Amino acid sequence: MSTLIKPIITEKMTSLSADKFAEKGFRYAFVVHENANKIEIKKAVEKLYGVTVEAVNTINNNGKLKSRNTRSGVLVGRVKRHKKAIVTLKKGETIDFFAGI
Predict the structure, then answer these.
(1) 78 located within any domain
(2) Torsion sign across C-alpha atoms 85, 86, 91, 92
(3) Count of domains forming the chain
(4) By the 8 A CB rule, do 87 and 28 touch?
(5) Rounded to an integer, what distance in angstroms lies between the CA atom of residue 55 and that of residue 45?
(6) How many CB atoms lie within 10 A of CB 27?
(7) Are the C-beta atoms of residues 35 and 58 closer than 8 Å to each other?
């Protein structure tokens, strides 16, 4: 079981990892396995990126109900649910997601 699924790279998360918000340390978000706990997430980030994690906050996002009108009628579905983790690193440490590109 892989604890970390993928990093979340959005405008909001990029601004959280910017210098102006980094008084306590840079913050990064990841989509994680739904059964992963904070200790497992911390160990996985430290092992994969070689940084020191100070705090881990988790969020469970429920799948939203979506519908759309088509010629054949209304199609109803659900967006997949997922769990996010916001990881705060030790002050002065960063993660570069684009180093290998």
Answers:
(1) yes
(2) positive
(3) 1
(4) yes
(5) 11
(6) 19
(7) no
C-alpha distances out from residue 32 to 20, 46, 78, 99, Å: 26, 14, 20, 22
Residue 27 lies in a domain: yes
Helix (H/G/I), strand (E/B), else coil: 21: helix
Domain that holds residue 62: 4-89
Q: Is residue 14 part of a domain?
A: yes
Q: What is the pLDDT of residue 46?
A: 95
Nearest to 30 by CA among 56, 68, 67: 56
Q: Please report, for the domain that includes residue 33, its CATH number.
A: 3.30.70.330
Assigned domain for 40 exists = yes
Residue 19 clears pLDDT 70, i.e. is over it: no
16 Cβ contact list (under 8 Å, min separation 6): 27, 28, 29, 86
Residues 22-60: tens digit of each pLDDT: 667 788 999 999 999 999 999 999 999 999 999 999 999
| Nearest CA-CA partner of 55 in 95, 82, 28, 94 | 28
